[in-house]
Amino acid sequence: MSVRTVCFLLVYVLTLEGGGGVTADEKRCDFFKGRWVWDKSGSSPMYNGLECPFINPGLNCQKNGRPDNMYLNFRWQPHGCSLSRFNGEDFLRRNTGKKIMFVGDSLSYNQWQSLGCLLYSRGRLYSLRLTHQGSFSTIFFDEHEVSIMYLKNGFLVDLVTDEKGRVLRLDSISRGRLWEQADILIFNSYHWWIHGGPLKSWDYYQVGERLYQDMALMDAYRIAMTTWARWVDSNINPAKTRVFFQGISAVHYEGNDWGAPSLETCNGQIEPILGSNYPGKRYVAEQVVKDVISEMKNPAYLLDITLLTQLRKDGHPSKYVGGALDCSHWCLAGVPDTWNQILYTILLKD
After folding, report:
1. In angstroms, how far is CA 310 from the centroid of its own chain?
2. Which residues are catalytic?
3. SS3 state at 65
4. pTM score, two decimals?
């Protein structure tokens, strides 16, 4: 182990704070502002990725030959409080008979797989069923009748193909009926919006009857997110269904963003950024999401994961993905487990 790595670990151990449940000082508690600390308790990672059957091959970094494992041994320490330890048995018991649905892009899929693994590792004595039907996947835990579902829908608004080409209808949601079945909804939309070149999946925007070939990306995103928010307010009963929105998950393709201008990607990164501040740029979409949610009649709970992911330049599959370099998704076990630990803590408070 290098001198630099040893010093890094000593800093983390010296700054370590205790884990456990939510502290009493709720006014100072912000789950999304904090720092990553070395977990000397031995409770990280929360499961063995090599044993979980739900992980996409490209996200199983240890199985794909990643030689380091430091990234598995950090936990998120919020300012003013601590997160509750994830308890799979308790989660299943509290959600008996419920349907929990993730709706979004591959980052939503990342979180869905993580939750499946967290529950599988704690409840492997329970019988379960995994089903895939097109873009819809379900893990069903029989004893508790709990469904953990993922529905692939990267834009949330309608994407159709007609004689004009591929049209992204920014003011239309016609396929939301399945969402209404859920007791807990976790939405996400951003990753597909920033795809360019051959990965771009639309030719035109449409608002009303008018087509736009060019529109500022964040203007289009704001219209679409406003359409989603209005759909939620009009169709989801807050007394029955809890709604969350997974915030913007950071990417690490430019080392200059974290003070390493000589680096072009996340490849070779084995440690988080120290402290609670990220030196790089903010995402414009962060404020768009916050603005839209603030205007909802029944605001969704924003899982504001941007900072905690910005600090984890070491958490991506990088070259251990079985294909192209990946500095946008997350290894499992890994960072998305913390998203679900925060979700669990919020639900416990409720």
Report:
1. 12
2. 106, 326, 329
3. coil
4. 0.91
